[in-house]
Design brief:
Helix content is about 35%, strand content about 20%. The chain is an alpha/beta fold. It has one domain. The longest helix is centred in the first third of the chain and has 21 residues.
């Protein structure tokens, strides 16, 4: 007795699969071309590619402008990018991505220690200050503080930061952050952003009191406001879906103030340091001081001390409102946005009580503009 012949499964012809794939690509391409789209991605915080002037669709090739436009405007692009980024994190291929997901937070990758650059900046800071008391604040990164939660291969890469911290600790002008940073790192930093929270800034404010000669006030003496829905730049660079959100918490003294902002396109002034309207934008951190500026001046006539000169990156933005309680004038310079040489800022004051440098480790090590202007 012979077995009945087995029925053969029908295979989809290869040509049909190719045609189906081409149809899908064509539909997505046409959807990208004819959909209204947008010019800016709040999620990624970047400008999207412009629509090409006259794309030539008669040939089976595209130029870079067409390719860039199709990549930026294909329907469902955010979902596709999020899925791809999540897969890289889950499979361990994300060790060199722009940002890393670790235990409920998105953190910056480790900062390679360029010891020569770091030592050069410290020498210039010392020379620039002369006889004026000065201090440097460079907090340890969120990634460094929670490296014990990482897989060993990832945690080991943060050893590159150890050498930089060792150099900073040797400097008698570096202000160490309180134990609260090691004990509660997740309350010192946002989950979606590399900047410190109000609690982190307040701990720095407490630590600076003895060095700069003021008596820190309890946080209850400041006016505190909160703004929900903040998604920081660290999350935006990760490619991960925006499932996490933070609450921006701000504090400033409740007394009259004048803020003067100088940028390359001119000067503007305001009578406040916190800008609630900016909290709802893609750049929510601009709630402090209306963002970054080449030079800004904070004047609070009822403060007890004279002038504090600050050379900074954005890490100082949430700290300056706290410090303004103690200084009648704060002159702050951000080398990334102009501001001239640091000595020019010092020349604007004849009653400088102290000089403060506030930089993230990445800026302090890698920002060449600081080296150029610190003279």
């Amino acid at each position: 007795m012979t077995d009945a012949p087995k029925s053969k499964k029908r295979k989809i012809p290869d040509s049909a699969a190719v045609i189906a794939g081409l149809v899908i690509l064509l539909v997505l391409g046409l959807a990208a071309v004819f959909s209204p789209g947008g010019t800016f991605s709040d999620w990624e915080r970047r400008e999207l590619a412009d629509r090409p002037a006259d794309p030539d669709l008669t040939e089976w090739k595209t130029d870079k402008a067409v390719e860039g436009f199709l990549k930026d405007h294909v329907p469902g692009r955010q979902i596709l990018v999020a899925v791809d980024s999540a897969a890289q994190f889950l499979t361990g291929r994300g060790s060199r991505l722009n940002t890393w997901y670790v235990g409920g937070a998105i953190v910056e990758p480790p900062v390679p220690a360029d010891t020569r650059s770091l030592e050069t900046k410290l020498r210039r800071f010392e020379k620039l200050a002369g006889d004026v008391p000065w201090a440097l604040v460079t907090p340890k990164t969120h990634g460094w503080l929670i490296r014990d939660r990482m897989i060993p291969s990832m945690a080991a890469q943060y050893d590159t930061e150890a050498e930089a911290y060792a150099i900073l600790e040797k400097s008698g002008n570096t202000v160490s952050m309180p134990e609260a940073f090691d004990a509660n790192p997740d309350t010192m930093y946002y989950r979606t952003d590399h900047h410190w929270t109000l609690q982190g800034a307040y701990q720095a404010y407490l630590a600076l009191g003895e060095r700069l000669g003021y008596e820190p006030l309890p946080l209850e003496d400041f006016r505190v406001t909160e703004y929900e829905g903040f998604m920081g730049t660290t999350l935006s660079r990760s490619g991960l879906p925006p499932f996490w959100k933070d609450t921006l918490v701000c504090a400033e003294p409740d007394s009259p103030v004048t803020l003067t902002m100088n940028d390359r396109d001119g000067e503007t002034a305001a009578d406040r340091l916190i800008f609630p309207e900016d909290a709802a934008t893609y750049d929510g951190y601009a709630v402090y001081l209306h963002g970054n500026h080449g030079t800004l001046t904070i004047e609070r006539p009822d403060a007890p001390e004279g002038t504090l000169v600050v050379f900074k990156d954005s890490f100082a933005n949430c700290l300056l409102p706290l410090l303004s309680r103690h200084y009648r004038r704060i002159i702050a310079v951000d080398a990334r946005y102009g501001g001239g040489f640091f000595s020019e800022a010092l020349a604007r004051s004849d009653d400088t009580k102290a000089i403060l440098y506030v930089y993230s480790l990445d800026s302090l090590v890698n920002d060449s503009e600081i080296t150029k202007r610190a003279k």
